C-alpha cells in the first residue's frame, strides 16, 4: 500500500459474535455463583470467546501478512493496545485501592481510631492488625497462618522478573534478524511463565489445605485470592499470547521493521510482571 492510502477493514462478523458469547459467559458465570446452574452457558461462553479470539486474530494476521496495513494502521494498533493496558491498570488499581482502604481506614475505624472511630462500638473487643488473623465478627474466621513471602512468592518474583529479561532479549534478537535466538529466548520466557503458574498452584493448595487461608478466611483471604487469582489469570492469558507469537515466529512471520504483534505481547507481559511486584510487596511482604 502507498503511504497515502487509508485502509478500511472489510465488514466483520466478529464484533457482534463477541458481544453475544461474552454475554453468554457473563450470564453463565452469574448463574453458577448465585444458583449453582448455568454450566452450559458458562462453558459455551468460554468456548465462544476462544473461537472469536482465534478467528478475529487470524483475520488480522492474514491482513497484516497480505500487506494491507500501513503507518496509519500501525498507529491505530498501538493506541488500541495502550488503551487496553490502561484499562487493565485501572482493573488492578481498583483491587489495590480496596486493599489500601481496608488497611488504612476501615480496620483503624473498627478499632476506635480516626474520624469514624465510633464504629468500634460494633465490636468493642476488636484489635486492628494486618494480616487480619482475628476478624471483628467471631462467626467469620480468619486464616490460621499466612504464607511466608521469602519462600515460594520470592521464587515466583524472581521467575517473572527473569522472564521479562528473556523476553527483552528475544525482542532485541528479532530486531537484529537473529530469528533462532529470538525463538529460543521466547521459549525460555514461556517455560519461566509455566513454572510460575505451577508454583502458584502449589502455593494455593498449601494455603487452602494447611494454613486455613481460603476465600472465606475474612477480608485477608478474600483480597489475597482476588488479587493473586486475577493476576494468575493474566499470566495465563499472557502465556497464550506468547505461545501464539512463538508459532508465528517459527512460521516466519515478523520482520525487524514490522512486528508490532510481538511488541504488543511483550507490553502485556511486562505489565503483568510489574503488577506482580506490587502484589509481592503489598500482599505478601507488607
Automatic annotation (TrEMBL):
It is an enzyme of class 7 (translocase). Its EC number is 7.1.1.9. It is found in: Cell membrane; Membrane. The keyword Acetylation does not apply. Residues 2-286 form the Heme-copper oxidase subunit III family profile domain. SUPFAM superfamilies: Cytochrome c oxidase subunit III-like (SSF81452). GO terms for cellular component: plasma membrane. Keywords: Membrane, Translocase, Transmembrane, Transmembrane helix. Pfam families: COX3. It is a multi-pass membrane protein. The chain crosses the membrane at residues 12-32, 39-57, 81-102, 153-174, 186-207, 219-246, 267-285. Belongs to the cytochrome c oxidase subunit 3 family. This is cytochrome-c oxidase.
